[in-house]
Structures are given as C-alpha cells and as structure tokens.
Design goal:
The chain is α/β, with parallel strands linked by helices. The chain has helices at residues 44-49, 70-81, 94-101, 103-106, 132-136, 164-171, 190-195, 198-208, 213-222, 228-236, 243-256, 261-273, 277-290, 295-308, 311-324, 329-342, 350-366; strands at residues 3-7, 11-16, 23-28, 53-59, 86-92, 110-114, 153-158, 178-181. Helix 1 (44-49) links the parallel strand 3 (23-28) and strand 4. The termini are far apart.
C-alpha cells in the first residue's frame, strides 16, 4: 500500500514499496495540466510492474518545485530511502530539473534526467520561451542557494537540436555527468525513448549500477525508425512552404502511434493550418475520445475551430479546457481573447492585454 510521507497544500510525497529490492527510485513529476495532488507518480506503473520501490514527489502546480517546504519534503524522502544500496533520482523536463537539483537532499547515488531545464528564471535563461506562463510567475526559493550534487553519477538525456542542449551546457558548469544525445528525440525525449523501448531498459540498468552512456546513445539513434516522436520532431522542423511533406510525416507518425492523443491532436493542428478543416476536426475529436476532457487536447481543438471560423465552438472548447485546468493563466488568457472576439464591443481587461503574448506563444508552439 502507498505510504504518505509528506503533504502540504502544494506537495505530496508518497512511497510505493515493499518489493524488497536493493534500489529505490525517487521520481519527480513533470509539467502538468491537472493541478491536483491526487494523481499517480511519474513512472509509477512501470516501477510497480518491475518490482522497484519508489518514492514519488508530486507538485500541485508547475512552479519548478520552488516551495518553502521543499527541504522538509526532501527530508522525508531521505529518511525513507535510507538503507537502500542504490537511490536513483529520476524525472523528465521539469521533473528532471528537480531530479538534478534536489539530488543532494535525497541521498542519491545516481541521477537520470530526461531533457532537464537548467532554470526557467527569465533573468537566468532569457532565451527560454517554452514555459512562458511558469517563467512569468517564477519566484526563486532555493534555486540559487542549493548546491549541486557532485558525488552521484549522473546521466542527462536530451535532443541536441533544440534548446535542451543549451540547458545541458549550463548544467556542465556545475555538475559532472554523462551526456546521452538523441538527435530528433524532441522535448521531452521521454516519449521517444519509451517508443523505441529504451526508456524501460535505461531505468532498469541505472537501478543495477553505472551504465554505458555511449552504448545507449548509439542504440537510441539506431532505433529511430520506430519512433513517432522522431517523425513529429522532423516534421515540425520543416518549413511551412513544404507543408505537404510535413503533413505526410505527421500522418506516418500517427500511423506508428494510433493511440497517442497528443500526436493525433498535433496532426489536427497542422491540417487546420493547411485549410483541411473537416479532417482536422475529425482528428481532434479522435484525440478527445482517447483522452476525454484533457485540457491540452481541448486547447488544440479550440485553435483549429478558430482557424475554421467557428468562434462559438472554439469558445466552448476553450471554456471546458480552462475549467478542467483549474483556470491556469494560459487557458484563461486564451478564453478571454476568444470572448472578446465573440463580443467585439466588450472591453478587454488588463489581464487579457498582459496575457496575450503568452497566448500567441502557445499558438505558435501548437501550430
């Protein structure tokens, strides 16, 4: 049975153990649209299925773990992990940031970080624009005062063709780690690794002991023909002037991953941008059948409905997305923008004006 180790308004720490193994994996959840502590931990099902004890750190919101109670939460982690022969911190993107930065407080022997962000503080990484909402409200709590872990072995897996390479280079100023570069793996590289079967192999290998980073990097490249994520990344790198090629690659990605709602939704966005609205709407409906009520799927659906000229339907989809995301700023901002378009005489609020840049950024990322 799961054991609650720590709980506050913003954080939950749960242990799922009793397997009797020598390794304990400390996971940190990644960016989420579901702002609740009542969700499964990162990689929980896989770790349970493979008989690996785990401690899951789950934040309510996308605040890059900058909470005053973080030290107390990690003290509970360290106490629960004491006695294991090997403790591995593990996460993806925001969770990978925490897996690296909070490793000293967990007693980690090893770190497995997938596409980690060095920081989202706009004064530290002004070129990082992917997490605009979280960056705009970022407040330093422990980021600059907590030292880096220099004793644990560390593995950073990332796509060197996107901004994650710059983040890895910044980590290299403070941390000794093995790089596992996966060109075309996208962000986060987690989905790519899972598709080609390497994510599972890597976790199990790190639990056993040090791994051969070069061998994993070579194998990741060798298996890329199996990955829908790789095709999506290649497609999004193609100029819109070659839109037919982009669409063809994304159709192939969906063929490889027919049950991946995010992949299907992205195809819907590209089809809508190309003016193929009937098929685009069908793709979005299919993604929502696979992930009912998912805020991001609804957000994307709203974008395509807006492109088609159906502002009322776009507004309805966006209202549901905002409700299900507990009114997260980027959802509320777009909702307000659509309301203003539906009622042009309605006065736009200061919130709408300030947030509009975030909406435009989200639109570009989804297009």
């Amino acid at each position: 049975m799961p054991e609650q180790l720590f709980r506050s308004d913003d954080l939950l720490v749960r242990k799922v153990g009793g397997h009797g193994g020598a390794c304990c994996v400390v996971t940190f959840d990644s960016f989420t649209d579901f702002r609740t502590l009542e969700r499964t931990g990162f990689g929980e099902a896989f770790l349970v299925a493979n008989g690996i004890d785990a401690i899951h750190v789950i934040p309510r919101d996308n605040d890059w773990y900058q909470y005053a109670e973080m030290a107390d939460a990690m003290a509970s982690v360290r106490a629960a992990a004491r006695g294991y022969q090997r403790v591995v911190t593990y996460g993806s993107s925001m969770g990978a940031y925490a897996a690296i930065r909070l490793a000293p407080l967990s007693g980690a022997h090893a770190i497995l970080a997938l596409s980690p962000q060095y920081s989202i503080d706009p004064t530290v990484v002004p070129w990082e624009q992917r997490w605009a909402e979280s960056s705009a409200r970022f407040r330093r709590v422990w980021e600059q005062s907590l030292p880096f872990e220099r004793r644990a072995e560390a593995y950073i897996v990332y796509d060197p063709r996107n901004p994650d390479r710059r983040h890895a280079d910044l980590f290299a100023r403070h941390l000794r780690f093995a790089r596992i570069a996966v060109p075309g793996g996208g962000h986060p590289v987690t989905g790519y690794l899972a598709e080609v079967g390497l994510l599972q192999e890597m976790i199990l290998a790190v639990c056993r002991g040090p791994i051969d980073a070069r061998a994993f990097a070579n194998e990741a490249r060798a298996r890329r023909g199996r990955s829908a994520q790789y095709l999506l990344t290649e497609a999004m790198g193609i100029s819109w002037r070659r839109r037919a090629r982009r669409i063809a690659l994304m159709r192939e990605a969906v063929r490889l991953a027919p049950d991946n709602p995010g992949m299907i939704s992205r195809l819907g966005l590209v089809l809508a941008r190309a003016g193929q609205f009937d098929e685009a709407i069908a793709m979005h409906r299919r993604s929502l059948e696979l992930a009912p009520g998912h805020p991001n799927m609804l957000f994307n659906f709203s974008l395509s409905l807006e492109r088609s000229g159906d502002i009322a339907a776009a507004l309805a989809a966006m209202q549901e997305a905002s409700d299900r995301a507990d009114g997260a700023v980027i959802y509320r901002a777009r909702l307000e923008d659509l309301r203003a378009r539906a009622a042009p005489g309605e006065r736009r609020t200061l919130f709408g004006e300030v947030s509009r840049a975030w909406v435009r950024l989200a639109n570009r990322l989804r297009a």
